[in-house]
Design goal:
One of its GO terms (molecular function) is catalytic activity. The protein contains five helices and six strands; from the N terminus they run H-H-E-E-E-E-E-E-H-H-H. By secondary structure, it is mainly alpha-helical. The protein has one domain (about 5-180).
Length: about 230
């Protein structure tokens, strides 16, 4: 809840900014947003899609535990109430809506709204930071070691996430759908990528000048013809 308080939020971003060492508060906030996104969506969505278990990730039930080892920041998300829910027979979609709503409207949307007002920065950057993790987890990490039936459920859940009603996210438009574009093959990347629509400011925290993410929109991407996937 401290992230919703202007003074406490800025103090926290300043402290984490000492780790990222970015040039601007916007860059530090964006990099923090990436870590926070991963903490919230990785375990919650994996539990939902793989185990049919719902964790209460609303902001009131979730807090960050920070640990530093040298220059490394190792944050963890801890839930006060660890009780889980499961879908009733023939009622998975209704249950899934509730799980998604707790993750996004009752946590991430509130935090992104606060940060975008306090820093300030575009909330679109924070939502795209979230979206790229959701897509990567479902398309890669979550699939590891699963049976075909489980993989099919993951694919269906991702399909639903990118077309679910906007109110589940606490937004006027589905923020994941906004960034769910096709992957394209480019000369500069080994695998097909989704080119970002917003810049995450990573280059402002890099020791190398103009060291952009491989999918950064600031790069002039040279597409390989007929490469849309």
């Amino acid at each position: 809840m401290d992230l919703l308080n202007r003074d406490k939020c800025l103090e926290y971003l300043t402290k984490t900014g000492e780790i990222f060492e970015a040039e601007t508060l916007m860059a530090n906030a964006s990099l923090f947003g990436k870590r926070y996104s991963y903490l919230v969506v990785a375990s919650s969505l994996y539990a939902m899609s793989v185990f049919d278990k719902g964790l209460d990730y609303c902001l009131e039930n979730c807090h960050i535990e920070s640990e530093r080892q040298g220059h490394a920041w190792l944050p963890k998300a801890r839930l006060a109430n660890m009780e889980v829910t499961s879908p009733q027979p023939n009622a998975r979609q209704q249950w899934r809506d509730g799980v998604i709503n707790h993750i996004f409207e009752h946590n991430l949307s509130r935090v992104w709204d606060a940060i975008s007002r306090f820093v300030p920065m575009s909330k679109a950057v924070l939502w795209e930071n979230t979206a790229i993790y959701v897509f990567w987890l479902y398309e890669n990490k979550f699939l590891e070691g699963l049976q075909e039936e489980q993989q099919a459920r993951l694919r269906e859940d991702l399909s639903y996430l990118v077309q679910a009603p906007a109110h589940l996210f606490g937004e006027k438009k589905n923020p994941l759908a906004t960034f769910y574009g096709p992957k394209v093959a480019t000369v500069g990347s080994e695998k097909p990528i989704r080119i970002r629509k917003t810049c995450c400011y990573y280059y402002q925290a890099s020791d190398e000048p103009e060291d952009y993410c491989s999918s950064c929109p600031k790069i002039k991407h040279e597409l390989i013809p007929e490469s849309v996937i």
